[in-house]
Write a structure and sequence with these properties.
There is one protein chain. The protein is built from 18 helices and two strands. Strands 1-2 form a two-stranded antiparallel sheet. It has a single domain, classed as Up-down Bundle (Na+/H+ antiporter like fold), CATH 1.20.1530.20. 73% of the residues lie in helices and 1% in strands. Strand 1 and strand 2 form a beta hairpin. The protein is mostly helical. Its main location: endoplasmic reticulum. Pfam families: Mem_trans (PF03547). One of its GO terms (cellular component) is endoplasmic reticulum membrane.
Length: 413
């Protein structure tokens, strides 16, 4: 498979995302106004509660069996490592760039959560469809299974790990904004709208106040003095704050629940025979879920594009933050991913299937998950910032994903 052929295969799904986002941007313009703030909010809830869970359930139930789950046990471990490594790199990034408090959750979310779903569902089968693909005749047989399992496991981690994390930062900033309103005693207090994107931003006076600038510090007995605590204590303090903010009910998001149900249906043979396959008595349930799931990806991309309208006029995201996220997801994570997969191969954890190893490496090279945009829309915090980050991430990925795919194939036996 030549470089030009591989380039076309890898670049097409990313360009599709950018084109659909452009349509969403067009429909959000004032002259059209089909995807205004209220419409985006309602559409996003439909994606969150219906389309995304349907997509996860149908793909997982149709492609995963108990035998394949036993064989592919390392994939959940690999995806977990992408989240942990991405979170650590994201945390380092916000420390280096001194990222504003109100977008720290978004930055860590974009660094940790990759698009493990629709991009792999398009790229991996497309590579296998090429007559001269490097993975042999069995490529098409396993491509959809690997990609679907990646999407399902990714959904579980995104909604049980990234979602509470982003929500914890969003809730913390809401509490901080409320305290500013209560404590303003001179003149009329400033008000903050929960449904407004600007509610996430600190007030004009907040940037210079002790309460805002000292959030990462612990007060001493002398109230007029503050001191910076060691980095380890600050990290422990931050973790405790996040853990207190995590709502376990929110951690079990619809997509995560759908993934668990999909695992049960796919791996338990009697249930699978009833629901999956054209000859199954209740196959109409699976077909309906698949039909609804197909609407999730374009709707989510339209929302992302619509949120770009305000970001193109004014964005609170620093250029260095955007560059940092792109560097994490397009340089550091793929390099570390090569090391992880190669080490797993040497220790006999992944077997000799080169396509499987290719998918494992690819999980480190994909751009940020668009589900992060869904989260910010649900929390009504940071929609504009997330859309700007996504725009540049996917624009760069149109090139970087192709280059990494080529390198991965060259490295594999």
């Amino acid at each position: 498979m030549g470089f030009l052929d591989l380039f076309v295969v890898a670049v097409m799904p990313v360009l599709e995302v950018l084109l659909v986002a452009g349509v969403g941007l067009f429909f959000a313009m004032d002259r059209i106004n089909l995807l205004g703030p209220e419409a985006r909010n309602y559409l996003n809830k439909i994606v969150f509660y219906l389309f995304a869970p349907s997509l996860v359930f149908s793909n997982l139930a149709e492609t995963i069996t108990f035998q394949s789950l036993v064989t592919l046990w390392f994939m959940p471990v690999n995806i977990f490592l992408t989240f942990i490594i991405g979170s650590v790199l994201g945390w380092i990034l916000i420390k280096i760039t001194k990222t504003p408090e109100h977008i720290r959750g978004i930055v860590i979310g974009c660094c940790s959560a990759g698009n493990l779903g629709n991009l792999l569902l398009i790229i991996v089968p497309a590579v296998c469809d090429e007559s001269n693909n490097p993975f042999g005749e069995s490529c098409s047989t396993y491509a959809e299974t690997y990609a679907s399992l990646s999407m399902a496991i990714g959904a579980i981690f995104i909604w049980s790990y990234t979602y509470p994390l982003v929500g914890a930062y969003a809730s913390e900033n809401m509490d901080h904004s409320s305290s500013i309103t209560i404590n303003s005693s001179e003149g009329a207090p400033e008000t903050f709208s929960k449904s407004s994107t600007e509610a996430l931003l600190p007030s004009r006076d907040c940037n210079d106040s002790e309460d805002y600038s000292g959030q990462g510090e612990l007060p001493l007995t002398n109230s007029d003095e503050r001191t910076k605590v060691p980095i380890v204590k600050k990290t422990v303090q931050r973790i405790k704050i996040i853990m207190r903010k995590i709502d376990l009910k929110k951690a079990f998001a619809p997509s995560a629940i759908a993934a668990v149900v999909g695992f049960i249906v796919g791996t338990i043979t009697p249930i699978r025979k009833v629901l999956i396959g054209d000859s199954a008595p209740l196959h109409v349930i699976d077909n309906s879920a698949s039909l609804m799931g197909e609407a999730g990806i374009p709707c989510l991309t339209l929302i992302m594009g619509a949120n770009l309208l305000k970001g193109l006029k004014r964005s609170e995201v620093s250029l260095w933050v955007i560059i940092g996220i792109i560097a994490v997801r397009n340089i550091f994570l793929p390099l570390l991913g090569i090391g992880v997969v190669k080490a797993a191969y040497l220790f006999g954890l992944v077997g000799s299937d080169s396509l499987y190893q290719f998918v494992l490496m690819l999980q480190y090279a994909v751009p940020s998950a668009m589900s992060v945009g869904t989260m910010t829309q649900l929390f009504q915090r940071g929609q504009v910032e997330t859309s700007v980050i996504m725009l540049w991430s996917y624009a760069v990925s149109s090139i970087s994903l192709t280059l990494w795919s080529t390198l991965f194939m060259w490295l594999l036996p």
